[in-house]
Amino acid sequence: MSSHSYEVALFGEFFSPDLKAILNRITLHSESAHPMHSREIVFEPFDAQQQRDAGSDPVILRARKELTEPDSGWVLYSYLKPESVRAHPEATVRPWATCQVIGDALSFAATLGYIRRSQIYKKGYLFRRGPLVIQMFQQEQVDPKTQQPIPAHADTLWEVEVKTASPTRNTQETPLRTSVNAVVEVQLLMKGLLDLRRQDL
After folding, report:
1. Is 175 domain-assigned?
2. What count of other Cβ atoms lies within 10 Å of the Cβ of residue 157?
3. Could you give the CA distance from residue 3 to residue 62 in angstroms, rounded to a whole number?
4. Name one GO molecular function term (predicted).
5. Please, is 146 exposed, middle or buried when counting C-beta atoms within 10 Å of its C-beta (0-12, 13-18, 19+)?
6. How far, in Å, CA of 14 to CA of 142, rounded?
7. pTM
8. Considering the domain boundaries, does residue 38 fall inside one?
C-alpha cells in the first residue's frame, strides 16, 4: 500500500447547445449545485526545463482561489504523474497533495523556488455527489492590462471534471476502488449525453 493520497477523476467536454440537457441530468443526480468562478495559477520550478531534459517530471504547483466566496483563501496543490492505464484503465488516478495557504500563496510559491507559468479563470457550476465534486466550466482568458477575466464567448467549449472532492488514501477502510466506482457511476449516468473519459495530464 502506498502512503500517497490520490485524486480519481474523469474528464469530458461539450458545446453550448448541449448545456441545458447536461446541466439538468447532472443536477438531477447531485446533492447540491452552486455557481463556480475560480482563478487558477500554475507554477513550475525555475529549473523545470532542465528537469525535463534530464528525463524527470517536474512537480507542478497550482494555486486556486474561489472568487464567489469573498473570504476564501488560496489552496495550493500539486499532482504527480498519473498511474499507468494498466493499473487503472477506467479512470485517471494520480498522487495529489494539497495545502491551505493563509495570506499570499503567490509569494509562498516563489519562496519554494517556483515561477508563474500561466493563469486562467474558470466559470460555471459546481456539484456535489457523495465523495465527488463535479466541475462544469468554461475557461475565461485574462485581460493582460487589468489581469481580470474576460467573459467566455457563448460558443466556448464547456469542460467537465468529475473527481474525488478530497485526497483519498488507498487503505483497507477506503480502497481506491470505491472512488473509481463512484466516478464510473457518473460516467454511466451521463452516457449518450456526455462522454467522460480518462486522460493523462
Report:
1. yes
2. 12
3. 22
4. transcription coregulator activity
5. exposed
6. 22
7. 0.89
8. yes
Q: Enter the C-alpha cell of residue 113.
A: 523556488
User: What mean pLDDT, rounded, does the chain reach?
Assistant: 91
Distance CA 73, CA 163 (A): 21
Q: Which domain holds residue 132?
A: 5-189
Nearest to 93 by CA among 81, 103, 110, 101: 81
Cα–Cα distance, 8 to 165 (Å, whole number): 9
In a domain, 196, yes or no: no
Distance between CA atoms of 135 and 4, rounded to whole angstroms? 24
Joined together, the cell numbers standing for residue 53 give: 531534459
State pLDDT tens for residues 32-80: 999 999 999 999 999 999 999 998 888 889 999 999 888 888 888 888 8
For the CA atoms of 28, 31, 32, 33, what is the dihedral angle to 10 degrees? -30
Domain membership flag for residue 199: no
Nearest Cα to Cα of residue 40 among 186, 161, 154 = 161
